[in-house]
Amino acid sequence: MNIYLHCEIYSREFDSKLLLAVLAASKGHEVIISDIEAIEKGVNRGILAPGVFHTKSLTPAKSKILRHKNFIKAGFKITSIDEEGGLVTDGYDDFAKMRFSNQTMEMASAIFTWGKEDADSLKKNFPSFSSKIHMTGSPRVDLWKSLFSNSLNPPSNFIDRPYLLIVSNLANSNGIVPFHKQIQQLIETDYDKRDPNLIKLLFGTVSEEYKLAFNFIEAIGYLAKNNIGYDIVFRPHPNEDINPWKIYLKGLRNVHIIKEGSVNAWIKNSFAVMHNGCTTAYEATISNKPLITYVPFDMEYGNDLPNKLGYIVNTKKDLSDKVNDLFSNMKFEKKNSHNFNNEKIV
After folding, report:
1. How many CB atoms lie within 10 A of CB 134?
2. For position 164, what pLDDT does the model report?
3. How far apart are alpha carbons 169 and 208 in whole angstroms?
4. CA dihedral 63, 34, 234, 201 (to 10 degrees)
5. Which of 34, 151, 286, 340 is the most buried (most CB within 10 A)?
């Protein structure tokens, strides 16, 4: 069978798509991983033979519905697992209504889910298509397991010194796509019709994100000044523009602003991870990596679920103390491990 895996954001999805591709190829399937433009051109020109098109979402956007109709007409079957996951909010029903519709569910041959909550929610909201919904888990989460630890090689620009990984999740206020363009895209794809409160919510979110960004800038500066021998790797969200951060954090000692490579490898090789409202919190927790949740003010629009994980700190001083403690513990454990491994067995 021919299988076409749609990869939208390389740094977020490629490793998990490669895992799927290897497993499928080992069973005799022909697999292509590609962005949507190349797949769509290949289908429209008759270059790609019919098979399974595994896509990243079933949002009821007009352009996506038209694309899937064309693929089905050309002999393809549509399958999907939503790459967004809906992991940062409590409950899945609102997410399901935003990201799926009866029309897109009907066009799909199979819908895969991250877990029980999204599977149950989809079956409740779209009962006619329950038989198409399969609780398989996400291959992105599979990569968080210790089984794959040794396959997560550091990027070519890997930092030699021990480092704290700081991840941001500010794609609304600091997106590659400007905020007004994001709003335009949501209106053009009818998100505002499916959720009349969405635009108002996003304006509140983006205002709070700017405040959080400033607090992160201050905190990173404080950590850079008061650390006890570690570097800082700051990693913007894949949908964030890296250039503003290069301005905000310019001149800070031992702070590296890096967007390249899979976040999995950066997490694995850090001594701790700091975040606010990011899915990375789940990965760090499952990977047994020390996690610091920095909440410098009461947030009205924050992602509550991931912010309940790890060591929750509220001030720059407490943040610095906690990071320094974790760094000292890491050095102590590494030293003891080294001494143990070098003991002679008599």
Report:
1. 13
2. 97
3. 12
4. 20
5. 34
298, amino acid identity: D
Closest to 31 in 3D by CA, of 58, 51, 57, 11: 51
Query: Secondary structure of the chain: what % helix, strand, coil (to 5)?
Result: 50, 15, 35
Which amino acid makes up residue 196? Answer: P
Domain for residue 147, yes or no? no
Q: What does the alpha-carbon distance between residue 166 and residue 60 come to, in Å, rounded to a whole number?
A: 34
CATH number for the domain harbouring residue 183: 3.40.50
Is the pTM higher than 0.70? The answer reads yes
Q: Which residue has the tokens 């975040």?
A: 275
Work out the mean pLDDT of the chain and round it to a whole number: 92
Among 175, 321, 167, 182, which residue's Cα sits nearest to residue 259? 167
Looking at per-residue pLDDT, the higher value among 343 and 215 belongs to 215
Residue 149 domain flag:
no
Task: From residue 311, give the alpha-carbon distance in Å to each of 77, 273, 340.
Answer: 45, 10, 29
- Which tens digit of pLDDT belongs to each residue from 297-325? 999 998 889 999 999 999 999 999 999 99
Expressed as residue numbers, the domain containing 258 is 157-337
In a domain, 148, yes or no: no
Confidence of residue 156 (pLDDT cuts 50, 70, 90): low
Q: 90 burial class (0-12, 13-18, 19+ CB within 10 angstroms)?
A: exposed
157 has pLDDT over 70: no
pLDDT at 89 over 90: no
Asked if residue 69 and residue 166 are part of one domain, the reply reads no
Q: In whole angstroms, what is the distance from residue 324 CA to residue 179 CA?
A: 36
Residues 192 and 329 in one domain: yes
